[in-house]
Specification:
The protein is of the alpha/beta class and 477 residues long. It folds into 2 domains: 45-333 and 429-471, 3-Layer(aba) Sandwich (Alkaline Phosphatase, subunit A); 341-424. It is 40% helix and 13% strand. The chain contains 22 helices and 14 strands. It has helices at residues 6-16, 31-35, 59-72, 78-82, 105-114, 135-141, 157-160, 172-182, 204-209, 218-224, 242-247, 257-268, 283-289, 293-304, 306-316, 345-351, 359-369, 374-381, 387-398, 405-412, 414-421, 456-464; strands at 48-54, 89-94, 145-153, 186-190, 213-215, 230-233, 275-281, 320-325, 329-330, 334-335, 423-424, 430-431, 435-440, 450-452. The chain has a 10-stranded mixed beta sheet with strand order 5-6-4-3-7-1-8-13-2-14, sandwiched between helices. A two-stranded antiparallel sheet has the order 9-12. Helix 13 (283-289) runs antiparallel to helix 14 (293-304), helix 17 packs across helix 20 and helix 19 (387-398) runs antiparallel to helix 20 (405-412). The relative contact order is 0.19.
Length: 477
């Protein structure tokens, strides 16, 4: 009996993609690891591109999560197991922008998306106001399907860096309009506020008129996955944090990042010409800004589940270029030595499991009542606030100039948080460290051991065999 063809295997894999999907871990050194090893590609060109980006991940963030995984799951983080995968191309990536050695997400994504460094805050627009051609425009001109998946608003900086042109990243209504005009085939994430209401420049109904299936909850996503055009908006702003979705029954119908990733593969995988898909674990960055240790852990663990899904896809469709990276660090997150001879650092990884809500969720709860509730705070964090701390949090709530109560709360109880978790921070800002970049599949061999972020655009367009820059800029609206 003859073996099934690669295309037949791919079709069967796509058909079988559900929101429960493949195993959440690679299982290094096991039969599972062998199963997920990508086959050698059939061609030198990549038919597809899967770009996995975890926004705002420091080296210390994945080291912290890795040690938590070893202690609590008796298994390494998938990110760490990638180092042992055959066919891996690994690089160190310089993340600077045109205006600073410390990039923001808009400039970082634009460097990947257009091949040129831009000023922080701009999206595919140079210092003179000239629009640069985004990667998705080149891919669409070549007939490929395109998709964006994120736990942030889909109009946020990182996804927009592959598809949109605006002078300021905050122009999210304009970004939504460009998604509609440029017909990005799959859009899954948060941010419904930019697709509804009087201020929105394009409405959900406008997408539906172009044949998009619109979904708002997990069960609808599962039912509609496989449609060639899919718009899924699962919250008004960013998708709720993973730790909150895990512990709040009211959020059970909000899909996870792996849920959305599988759905996108099922939809985009129908394209005979191929696809380009960016998948962003965007809220690792937000938890880093907030210095929220349990929340950043759960966000990274959820992104980590996407890695075996991608490698499984490559096994069935080896003519796919897979890139896994981050755009910059955020917060300087580190698991620190604690206790005599650092003997308390391990137990701290157990105590963090007592935390059951993000500080963002606590902020929403307290703002709803207008009152800080110490009992609710203790139940969610395991920290008993002093009277002075409770008063400080209440005063911050009452201050009309307070923008982020969640960050204020972590600052007020920072000593207690460190004692509990042994996780420390350098700031609440982005950081400048060079970051890891992993790649598999056709075109990955072009990636040098040290690469600057804007150089990745040429690697991707060459691998996909799509035109660059001015040759496809006529499609930019």
């Amino acid at each position: 009996m003859s073996k099934s063809s690669p295309s037949s295997n791919r079709r069967q894999f796509i058909k079988g993609l559900g929101l429960s999907g493949v195993a959440a871990t690679l299982g290094a050194g096991s039969a599972a690891a062998d199963r997920l090893r990508p086959r050698q590609p059939k061609a030198t060109k990549a038919k597809n591109l899967i770009f996995l980006v975890v926004d705002g991940m420091c080296t210390g963030t994945y080291a912290f999560a890795h040690h938590w995984s070893l202690r609590n799951r008796k298994a390494p983080l998938n990110w760490m197991q990638v180092y042992e995968q055959p066919g891996l191309t690994r690089a160190l990536q310089d993340t600077a922008s045109a205006s600073s050695p410390v990039t923001d997400s808009a400039a970082a994504a634009s460097a990947w998306g257009s091949g040129q460094r831009v000023m922080n805050g701009a999206l595919n627009t140079d210092a003179n106001g000239k629009s640069l051609t985004p990667l998705f425009t080149c891919a669409k001109a070549a007939g490929k399907a395109t998709g964006l998946v994120t736990t942030c608003r889909v109009t946020h900086a990182t996804p927009a860096g592959f598809a949109a042109n605006v002078e300021k990243r905050g122009m999210e209504n304009e970004i939504a309009q460009q998604y509609h005009e440029r017909e990005i085939d799959v859009l899954l994430g948060g941010g419904s506020r930019h697709f509804e209401g009087e201020k929105a420049l394009t409405q959900v109904a406008d997408f539906q008129k172009k044949g998009y299936q619109f979904v708002q909850i997990k069960s609808e996503l599962e039912a509609q996955a496989g449609n060639s055009k899919l718009l899924g908006l699962f919250s008004k702003s960013h998708v709720p944090y993973a730790i909150d979705r895990k512990n709040d029954a009211a959020l059970a119908e909000v899909p996870s990042l792996p849920d959305m990733f599988r759905a996108a593969l099922k939809s985009l995988g129908q394209s005979k010409v191929g696809f380009v898909l960016q998948v962003e674990g965007g809220r690792v960055d937000h938890a880093g800004h907030g210095n929220d240790p349990a929340t950043i852990l759960h966000e990274l663990l959820e992104f980590d589940e996407c890695i075996p899904i991608a490698l499984e896809y490559l096994k069935h469709d080896p003519d796919t270029l897979l890139i896994i990276t981050t755009d910059h660090g955020t917060g300087g997150c580190q698991l620190n030595g604690a206790g005599s001879a650092y003997s308390d650092s391990g137990p701290a990884l157990d105590r963090i499991n007592d935390m059951t809500a993000s500080f963002e969720a606590l902020e929403h709860q307290f703002k709803t009542t207008g009152r800080f509730d110490p009992a609710v705070f203790t139940a969610a964090t395991g920290i008993v606030p002093t009277k002075a701390q409770a008063n400080a949090i209440q005063a911050t709530m009452d201050d009309p100039n307070t923008s982020y109560l969640s960050s204020a709360m972590t600052g007020i109880v920072s000593d207690e948080l460190f004692k509990k978790t042994a996780v420390g921070w350098t700031s609440s800002n982005h950081t400048s460290e060079c970051v890891d970049l992993f790649a598999f599949g056709p075109g990955s061999e072009r990636i040098q051991p040290f690469i600057r972020n804007f150089e990745l655009f040429g690697v991707m367009t060459q691998a996909l065999g799509v035109s660059q820059g001015e040759s496809c800029s006529a499609s930019v609206s």
